Amino acid sequence: MVGNLFYDLKYIFNPSKCLACNILVNKDEKNICISCRHSISQVELLTNNSNLLDLVFFGRIKVEESAYLMLYRKDGKVQRLIHQLKYQNRQEVGTILADWFGPQLNESGRFQDVDVIVPVPLHPKKLRLRGYNQLTTFGRGLSKYLQVPFDEDVLIRTNHKASQTLKDRLNRWVNVKEIFDVKTLDKWHDAHILLIDDVVTTGATLESCALALRKIPNVKISILTMAKAHY
Asked: Which residues of the chain form beta strands (DSSP E)?
């Protein structure tokens, strides 16, 4: 009773706003309003219709399976949501998305044979500056649903490059070419790795990560991203 009263008073004096649209949310909506939950463009995992991501990597790298969870549009709700995660220290967004989509992944039966979840890494300089990898809470949440380890100690970023956000498609590819490596070749040999990222645009970053992971003996790679850029 006292706990509920404290929560109600906290909400009255410090109301929460939706991370996607910035309107006030009630205390039961948990950071994303019901309207945004219904209006955000989601990929229907049960019908396996996310093969547009397969086309991104076709002829470039071998991928066992790939999927994205939402469509990312400029100035849209998904962009604002991920911006909160990456630049406003709202790390709970990763947990929210994992809890949102984790049950759907299990119901769809997709990615059920992966052995480990590996995030695209930040360069140590950027990690120190930001203080966290925006994929950590998302990856940890997914590991709970897929019941496999989340391992941030597999890939390393060897060069610090400028942000990809404002680069065109060619410069995105050049910017990330051969800037990732693996820490050890022994840890996940013969494993099926689920490589995760926030937004895929050209696929250049994920391609570079996958090529580095290919150095591990007999590895298989699948890819899952929070969103795919929509043009």
From this structure: 66-72, 116-119, 155-157, 180-182, 192-200, 220-229
